[in-house]
Design goal:
Elements lengths: L4 H28 L11 H20 L20 H24 L5 E4 L5 E3 H25 L10 H26 L4 H27 L7 H5 L18 H5 L8 H27 L2 H24 L6 H4 L4
Length: 326
């Protein structure tokens, strides 16, 4: 299918924003339970929340370029009972709202205790909002991925692996970014974030390789014969059915040369996973914030290429009618 750059930037940017929000919540929990005795940097969570909000807002803004009538965007939430897109449209503002509250509580340094557990650990208001935010982030990952995974007629997408990959890649990019941010802020959580970023990127690599292997083993559910109901085995197409350009030819075929796809696959596996893993491993060893910053930039470029390939490698069954002349 034809990749839309507005959707590519939407999914990669909000994925990084969601991952960053999860990282902040995980870091606060790690600090609250006493895993690190050092005091957290002032406004670390507040400024981190602002950075996450910027990523989510930029991704949301890019999505408007995919709409023929942006002024009607609010109507996209109307079909929430049956549409994963509608659910995404509802959950995304919810995540952003919880992020604003979470960051605001930290900015105001207002942490009223809601509950004290038997081990003398407190649940304050900001942590409670963070837990709600983490749940909303997971819901948003599922909603975004299920927009594609629910399409059973596109075999490359119709798999739980799609949901897993969206979640892992978004979380990985968010953790890589928060590690660089933690280094700049002098956070005592730097090692915690570095380990999480490296582990999530490795898991995301295995998840994407699993989807590549699965897609390579797929067998088409239909053929030219079954598409038109003629069982003759020597049937072949001699015309596309169009003498000029058409919507079907534009939107359901990727614009690149087929020989480009293996090259792009190698590029995004290298840029989104292999190189960042190497940079982070060296950066963790050297305690280098700069290498983690570089890892995020390289990884994001690789994830943009990965998302382009996610769309380009999807084979819509309508192409049986409109494929190139045999």
């Amino acid at each position: 299918m034809r990749p839309a750059f507005s959707v590519i930037f939407l999914t990669t940017l909000i994925g990084a924003g969601q991952g960053l929000f999860l990282a902040l919540i995980a870091g606060q929990f790690y600090w609250v339970i006493g895993a690190t005795p050092a005091q957290e940097a002032a406004n670390f969570y507040a400024l981190g929340s602002l950075l996450s909000l910027c990523l989510l807002s930029t991704g949301l803004f890019s999505s408007f370029f995919h709409l023929a009538h942006p002024e009607r965007a609010w109507r996209s939430a109307a079909a929430w009972r049956t549409s994963w897109l509608s659910r995404e449209v509802i959950v995304l503002p919810l995540v952003m709202g919880l992020l604003v509250v979470y960051g605001g509580l930290h900015w105001l340094d207002w942490h009223p205790v809601l509950m004290t557990f038997g081990n003398m650990k407190d649940l304050d208001l900001s942590m409670a909002v963070g837990y709600l935010g983490a749940g909303a982030v997971i819901m948003l990952f599922v909603c975004t991925a299920m927009i594609y995974a629910c399409m059973k007629f596109i075999q490359e997408w119709a798999s739980p692996v799609t949901v897993l990959n969206f979640t892992l890649m978004g979380s990985a990019s968010g953790f890589v970014l928060v590690t660089a941010y933690a280094g700049i802020m002098g956070s005592p959580l730097w090692d915690f974030y570095a380990g999480g970023a490296l582990a999530l990127t490795v898991l995301a690599l295995f998840g994407r390789l699993a989807s590549l292997l699965r897609n390579r083993m797929l067998k088409p559910m239909s053929s030219v014969q079954t598409a038109i109901g003629v069982r003759h085995r020597n049937l072949r197409q001699i015309t596309r059915g169009f003498t000029a350009g058409a919507f079907n030819l534009k939107e359901f075929f990727h614009p690149g040369n087929p020989s480009l796809l293996p090259l792009l696959t190698g590029f995004y596996v290298t840029a989104a996973f292999a190189v960042p893993i190497l940079l982070m491993a060296v950066g963790w060893q050297l305690q280098s914030t700069a290498l983690f910053g570089l890892a995020f930039v390289v990884q994001y470029a690789g994830l943009v290429a990965e998302r382009w390939m996610f769309f380009a490698e999807a084979r819509h069954p309508q192409n049986l009618y409109y494929q190139k002349v045999a």
